[in-house]
């Protein structure tokens, strides 16, 4: 059963050459990150102080800012507050060496869009940058369609080319999250934080097991696999055009 | 810093010597009081005695005829009876002298049959005090008898002299005793000071001389020694923790180093290099997880941050976490169940806490339970309301923890399980306890839900019910 109203349009590609402003005072780390991001097709500008970051962000339009929380002269949170005060609305990813329990909360309250604790894996950073650049645009849609998958958010049903897929509520939530972000690397931490709203690092391969269960239901025998593991980073719901 | 700076006045500046001074003052006070009382008593006694003599003599003389009395008076004035009655005088009704060695009427004397103490001031001699008794005798005449205070003044003199002579040696003796005792106390304190100096210089095994703790100083030394034992134990623990952490960090780091060294020493293909890099990254992540866990524990323990505190329904929390862990349990061949006893939409399971941290507690305990429970076992997470408390319990049917080791498991800050084969920072339980302490909750270990052969183990926590926030 295919719903008659049109499914939400989900952008499949990162905007080409997204411009990123990276504010980080550790030059060695910054060099690594800038090169890695450049290699992945981003255009990155790097500055080392909060003041310089503020000036750069107000004088030029960036698609996204990656901001270290502890910066000389002007700290990261003040930079965000000043930017938001000047109506600069580009998404901000806050980096922090602080592992404080409520740092994340204050970071997000100040106007940050995501929060990443140092040390981080490069793949984690890239995945989060991509997620911020491609935020799901229509969250009010009642149906989602990604490749052969159809999801009805009201009836809570999922079909793959007419085949009904029986899902537990938690599996449904997980698949919904994946279907809102197709062709996008989703890390284990992102899934834990966004699907389950947990912010701890499990000692077991929790997320892998959940994905494995979901995959067995979604990708039947003989069907083209849709849920892929991305080595070293996470998972992706991949559909061809 | 040491005692030698003040040793010149050392003895004089001890508590014992100050106590001695107080005692000396008390002894002097006591002696003064004793002599004053003696003085008063003797004065009283002597007065009574002299009054008695005067009255008896007067009573005898009043009986005599006037002629006989005059004779008697003259006789007394000259014979040895003067020793008893020192002066006698017979006067007429106008106080004129008739007979006796008392030639003039003593000024101020009244004829009332009572003894009066008066001062005589003869023109040719120094004034002196006497006790007088004047009685009327037949013929309108007056008989005056006088008794000197000679004996009394001699007694007074003796008492004063005795007092002065005895105070000095007593005080000297007390002071000397004080100095000797103070010196001994000082010597004992000095050995303690020296022991403390050695401890401060780093000899943590040194102890104060406590003997058999017979007096207060030795008991104090004993208490200090027990405190030092405890501190030394804690220092050992911290050193062990440091060693364990260093060891836990060194193992993956040396692996990384060995792999990288081997990878650079000889040419290898890209696949091999990639696998080396991947493994190195994993080992570094292991190091980071140890460091992160330590920092978090420190932060939770020291910071006392309660910014994230809100009303949390532990029943929902248990249901959520079990939902998250159920597939893992299934994969491991375990049955994971949640047991939430609560009225729908009631407040009996609501407490005040940090949801994220409490999730971490349950996740760690669940990780732990599933690690140590063999396939086919059960793991149960329950939240049950009690009288104004909520009992949270994570129980398994695994190998369990022997009762003797339970205290140690909870008491140790850092459990370095040398034989552990499971990944993780090894700091999970320490983190759990830090979080629970932040919430003011104790963690207890009890028998789990297993059979008698394998009892399993249960981690039990008791939270306070906080009720829901007022919706208004």
TrEMBL record, chain A:
The keyword Cell inner membrane does not apply. Signal peptide: none annotated. The modification 4-aspartylphosphate is found at residue 68. Keywords: DNA-binding, Phosphoprotein. Residues 141-239 bind DNA. Pfam families: Response_reg, Trans_reg_C. Residues 141-239 form the OmpR/PhoB-type domain. Residues 19-133 form the Response regulatory domain. It comes from the Bacteria. InterPro entries: CheY-like_superfamily (IPR011006), OmpR/PhoB-type_DNA-bd (IPR001867), Sig_transdc_resp-reg_receiver (IPR001789), WalR-like (IPR039420), WH-like_DNA-bd_sf (IPR036388). SMART domains: REC, Trans_reg_C. The keyword Zinc does not apply. This is Two component response regulator. It comes from Asaia krungthepensis NRIC 0535.
From TrEMBL, chain B:
The lineage of its organism: Bacteria, Pseudomonadati, Pseudomonadota, Alphaproteobacteria, Acetobacterales. This is histidine kinase. The keyword NAD does not apply. Signal peptide: none annotated. PANTHER family: HISTIDINE KINASE, SENSOR HISTIDINE KINASE YKOH. It catalyses: ATP + protein L-histidine = ADP + protein N-phospho-L-histidine. GO terms for molecular function: kinase activity. It is found in: Membrane. Residues 183-236 form the HAMP domain. Residues 244-467 form the Histidine kinase domain. Keywords: Kinase, Membrane, Phosphoprotein, Transferase, Transmembrane, Transmembrane helix, Two-component regulatory system. Pfam families: HAMP (PF00672), HATPase_c (PF02518).
């Amino acid at each position: 059963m295919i719903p008659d109203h049109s499914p939400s349009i989900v952008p499949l590609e990162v905007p080409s050459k997204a411009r990123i402003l990276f504010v980080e005072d550790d030059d060695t780390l910054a060099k690594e990150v800038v090169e890695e991001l450049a290699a992945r097709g981003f255009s990155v500008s790097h500055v080392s102080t909060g003041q310089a970051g503020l000036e750069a962000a107000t004088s030029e339009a960036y698609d996204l800012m990656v901001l270290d929380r502890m910066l000389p002269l002007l700290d990261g949170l003040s930079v965000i507050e000043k930017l938001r005060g000047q109506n600069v609305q580009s998404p901000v990813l806050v980096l922090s060496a602080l592992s404080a329990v409520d740092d994340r909360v204050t970071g997000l309250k100040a106007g940050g869009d995501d929060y990443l604790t140092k040390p981080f894996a490069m793949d984690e950073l890239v995945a989060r940058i991509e997620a911020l650049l491609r935020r799901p645009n229509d969250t009010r849609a009642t149906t989602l369609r990604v490749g052969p998958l159809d999801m009805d958010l009201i009836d809570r049903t999922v079909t793959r080319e007419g085949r009904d897929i029986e899902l537990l509520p938690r599996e449904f939530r997980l698949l919904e999250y994946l279907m809102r972000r197709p062709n996008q690397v989703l890390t284990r931490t992102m899934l834990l934080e966004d699907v389950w709203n947990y912010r701890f690092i499990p000692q077991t391969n929790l997320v892998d097991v959940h994905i494995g269960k979901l995959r067995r239901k979604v990708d039947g025998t003989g069907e083209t696999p849709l849920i892929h593991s991305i080595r070293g980073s996470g998972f992706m719901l991949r559909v061809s055009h | 810093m040491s005692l030698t700076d003040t040793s010149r006045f050392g003895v004089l500046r001890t508590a014992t010597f100050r106590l001695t001074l107080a005692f000396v003052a008390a002894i002097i006070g006591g002696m003064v009081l004793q002599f004053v009382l003696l003085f008063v008593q003797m004065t009283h006694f002597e007065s009574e005695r002299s009054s008695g003599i005067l009255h008896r003599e007067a009573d005898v003389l009043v009986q005599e005829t006037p002629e006989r009395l005059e004779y008697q008076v003259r006789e007394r004035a000259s014979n040895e009876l003067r020793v008893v009655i020192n002066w006698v005088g017979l006067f007429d009704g106008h106080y004129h002298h008739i007979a006796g060695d008392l030639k003039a009427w003593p000024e101020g004397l009244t004829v009332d049959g009572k003894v009066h103490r008066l001062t005589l001031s003869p023109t040719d001699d120094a004034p002196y005090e006497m006790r007088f008794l004047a009685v009327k005798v037949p013929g309108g005449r007056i008989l005056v008898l006088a008794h000197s205070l000679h004996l009394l003044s001699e007694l007074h003199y003796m008492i004063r002299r005795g007092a002065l002579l005895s105070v000095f040696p007593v005080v000297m003796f007390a002071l000397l005793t004080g100095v000797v005792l103070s010196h001994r106390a000082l010597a004992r304190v000095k050995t303690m000071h020296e022991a403390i100096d050695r401890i401060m210089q780093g000899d943590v095994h040194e102890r104060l001389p406590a003997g058999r703790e017979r007096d207060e100083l030795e008991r104090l030394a004993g208490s200090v020694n027990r405190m030092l034992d405890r501190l030394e134990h804690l220092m050992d623990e911290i050193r062990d923790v440091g060693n364990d952490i260093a060891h836990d960090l060194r193992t993956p780091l040396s692996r990384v180093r060995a792999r990288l060294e081997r990878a650079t020493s000889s040419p290898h293909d890209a696949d091999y290099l990639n696998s080396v890099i991947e493994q190195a990254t994993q080992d570094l992540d292991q190091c980071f997880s140890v460091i992160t866990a330590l920092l978090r524990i420190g932060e939770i323990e020291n910071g006392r941050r309660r910014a994230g505190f809100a009303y949390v329904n532990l029943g929902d929390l248990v249901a959520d976490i079990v939902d998250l862990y159920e597939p893992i349990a299934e994969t491991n061949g375990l049955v994971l169940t949640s047991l939430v006893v609560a009225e729908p939409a009631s407040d009996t399971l609501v407490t005040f806490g940090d949801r994220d941290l409490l999730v971490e507690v349950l996740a760690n305990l669940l990780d732990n339970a599933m690690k140590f429970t063999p396939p086919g076992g059960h793991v149960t997470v329950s939240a049950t309301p009690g009288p104004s408390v909520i009992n949270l319990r994570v129980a398994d049917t695994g190998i369990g923890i022997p009762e003797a080791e339970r205290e140690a498991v909870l008491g140790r800050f850092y459990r370095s399980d040398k034989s552990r084969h499971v990944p993780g920072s090894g700091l999970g339980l320490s983190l759990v306890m830090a979080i629970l302490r932040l919430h003011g909750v104790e963690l207890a270990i009890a028998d789990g839900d297993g059979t008698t052969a394998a009892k399993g183990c249960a981690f039990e926590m008791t939270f306070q019910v906080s009720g829901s926030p007022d919706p208004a």
